[in-house]
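It is worth pausing here to work through a concrete case rather than discussing structure prediction in the abstract. The textbook approach is simple: state the sequence, then state the predicted structure, then interpret. We follow exactly that order.
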Amino acid sequence: MSSFRQAQLTAEQAHSSTVVHARSVSRSFGDIEVLHSIDLDLRRGEIVALVGRSGSGKSTLLRIVAGLDTGHGGTVEVDGSRAVAFQEPRLLPWRTVRANVSLNLRRPGISRRNLDALAVAALGEVGLAHRVDAWPLTLSGGEAQRASLARALVREPDLLLLDEPFGALDALTRLEAHALLTRLWAEHGFAALLVTHDVEEAVVLADRILVLDDGHLAHQLTVDLPRPRERDDPHLVELREQVLGYLGVDTKKNLEIS
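Step two, the predicted structure:
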């Protein structure tokens, strides 16, 4: 087989395994251009972390990929179903946890009772089997975020979009949430786009890290480390320092000053 044909087949295989294919994505609000000519691909089963300074357009790009913002330029193709989990769990306080997870859930040929059973099963997956009939206001922050994940997972998405979902959690609960997400990803095989301001979170969870700067995807790093990842692994620490450097944070200088 010719090298050209091999390259062509490789390209075709890569495209068939792509969940998100975005080209020349731009977004402006008035005279302010937030995103400029973004190209983005996500492969099936891949976790990609998107980091950048506050106001760099991370959440705007995620909302565009999620289909929640249609005022952009360029093209975005998503091959499969999508689900979104935000920083705020956004649970309806007048519905039980079970009812929140099954809200607007539809499956052809499946009764409401069976859909309710799917919601209960999803809550069991995230460790909330004992809280299915609780009211949202009685949940802890970690429990509410797990309920939000269950609401996304019950839809069996090909693509899970996470907009700083662990940002409001305390340090210990955040570690537990990271372990939960890693386990659910391994079991379900979804692709995930994770927006985060936490660089350590990015290197612990992601297969690739994209750095958004001044409306451009300025840097990309591959995290080729086995899971679970030890936070004090020298390779992981080196990657974290590299990403922080791209964000303009000189950790060595900061240590000297302190």
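Step three, interpretation. The mean pLDDT is 86. Residues 171-188 form the longest helix (18 residues).
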